[in-house]
Amino acid sequence: AVVSTQSTGNKEENISTSNETRYTIGSITKSFTAYLVAKSVNEGKLRWDERLTDAFAKYGVDFSLIGKDRDQTLTIRDAMSHRTGLKTYDWLLVDGRNFSKEYWMTKLLPLFEQEINVRYDFLYNNWLYSLAGYLLELVENISFEDQVRETFFVPLNMTESMFVTDQAYRELSGDQFAMPYKEGANHTLYPLNKSVMEYIGPHNAAGGIVSTASDMAKYMGALLNAYNEVHGSILNGTILRYITEPSIILNGQLGDQVVIGKPDFPVTEKFFGYGMGYIAANY
């Protein structure tokens, strides 16, 4: 597969960027996490329909959601496909510096309220991918970050990729990374201090990867090769096809975006489902 790359500028500093400028890739990180979970399932270490409480209990961790019915119901598949119905509390994600990953996942997450019924509808929740990253550390006995490095960064030669918690990220100068922005009232863009991203450390599995256009082109090429079973592919096509298959149908909207409607001409992209780490769409 041939993938071209192109970058545009940094608005705040009026600095031109290049294919080697680092960007926080946000929730694209979830595709890495989903693949690692699927890899553990493929190796017989986890089961998709295993209850979360049982999966953690195997490793001596008491993960118990408030409410008996939820403990008896929620599975790994539910967590990975955003169909748990748990309220999101995303504002807590940037305050990860105050607590350990274990505390966030076993003490705070179990307190989250139920917003909708389990498997009733799609409800995006970053915390469940943070939970998946924590589970992977227990299963593989190495950090989530090192699993990503061993499975993706090293074999795919993604030499410029890292995590927001890495010292290398902290040392990046202003012309080496793209300033993240938050949209405010009247579509005004407000720059986010780079250090804010470091606080999401316990949630690296939900959105902590930093990468470049060139490295992400390598990742995209590896995904396409694996999916199409190109000889010599580094990633597993069977795993990839499984996690891109929809596990839940979207209800016509993804957040504020209408995803089911009249096609646009001449090119259209319409979301219709969510797999595990991937949105399913017609293009």
Description:
By secondary structure, this protein is of the alpha+beta class. It contains 12 helices and 10 strands. It has helices at residues 29-42, 52-57, 68-73, 76-80, 101-108, 126-140, 144-153, 167-170, 194-198, 204-207, 213-227, 237-244, and strands at 23-24, 162-163, 181-183, 189-191, 209-211, 248-249, 253-254, 257-258, 270-274, 279-282. It has a 3-stranded antiparallel β-sheet.
What characteristics describe this protein?
three-stranded antiparallel sheet; 283 residues; alpha+beta
Structure in a nutshell:
The chain has 283 residues and is of the alpha+beta class. It has helices at 29-42, 52-57, 68-73, 76-80, 101-108, 126-140, 144-153, 167-170, 194-198, 204-207, 213-227, 237-244; strands spanning 23-24, 162-163, 181-183, 189-191, 209-211, 248-249, 253-254, 257-258, 270-274, 279-282.
> What structural class do you assign from the helix and strand content?
alpha+beta
Q: Which whole number gives the mean pLDDT?
A: 84
Main pleated-sheet profile: 3 strands, antiparallel
Spell the H/E element sequence: EHHHHHHHEHEEHHEHHEEEEE
- Rg over CA atoms: 19 Å
> How many E-type strands?
10
Q: Report the uncertain regions.
A: none
Strand content: 5-15%
Distance linking N and C termini? 18 Å
Largest beta sheet: what is the strand line-up? 1-5-2
| C-alpha geometry | globular
What's the helical proportion of residues? Answer: 25-40%
Count of alpha/pi helices? 12
